[in-house]
Each structure stands twice: as C-alpha cells, then as structure tokens.
Write a structure and sequence with these properties.
By secondary structure, this protein is of the alpha+beta class. The chain has a single domain, classed as Alpha-Beta Plaits. Helix content is 14%, strand content 20%. The chain has a two-stranded antiparallel sheet. Strand 2 and strand 3 form a beta hairpin. The longest helix is centred in the first third of the chain and has 5 residues. The radius of gyration is 11 Å and the shape is globular. It binds iron/sulfur cluster (2 copies). One iron/sulfur cluster binds next to helix 2.
Length: 69
C-alpha cells in the first residue's frame, strides 16, 4: 500500500517532501505527488504515515486505495 496526495487540496508547501524517509514525494508541475513504488507508508521509520502527519491541510495525504481514493 501507498499514500497519495489529493491534488485539489495540496498547496505545494513542500513540508511532506522534506520529511519522507523514502524520498517518494516530488514536485510534479504544480503540486506534489507520491511515487507509489517508493512509498512504504513509513514502515520502519514512523508509527504513522509521516506526510499525513506534517501536512497542514487535513485529508490531503490519504491512502491510495480505499475510501476517498
Ligand atoms: S507515507 Fe511515508 S513513505 Fe509514504 S509518501 Fe508519506 S512520508 Fe513518504
Ligand atoms: S504537506 Fe500537504 S499541502 Fe504541503 S506539499 Fe505536501 S501534500 Fe501538499
């Protein structure tokens, strides 16, 4: 499983990119995106997905599958 960024909500602040332990987050034109092949939901690094923790906009970093995907 991986996380994804909801492009309509992302303000491109960049906070998540700096803190991703897998360097899975990068700028794509106007918003940031998560590479699903690199995102491991922070396993082994943080107890919870760190991008979701640091993102100032609630609901922007969400599971790539499941409700809201
Ligand atoms: S859940 Fe963790 S590994 Fe995945 S993109 Fe967010 S910070 Fe990076
Ligand atoms: S922390 Fe949130 S608002 Fe900021 S770039 Fe990442 S996803 Fe976008």
């Amino acid at each position: 499983m991986a996380y994804r960024i909801v492009p309509e909500l992302c303000t491109s602040c960049g906070a998540c990119e700096l803190d991703c332990p897998n360097e899975a987050i990068s700028m794509d034109r106007f918003t940031f995106v998560i590479d699903p092949d690199k995102c491991k939901e922070c396993q082994g690094h943080f107890d919870t997905p760190h991008c979701a923790s640091v993102c100032p906009v609630p609901g922007t970093c969400v599971p790539a599958e499941g409700p809201g995907a």
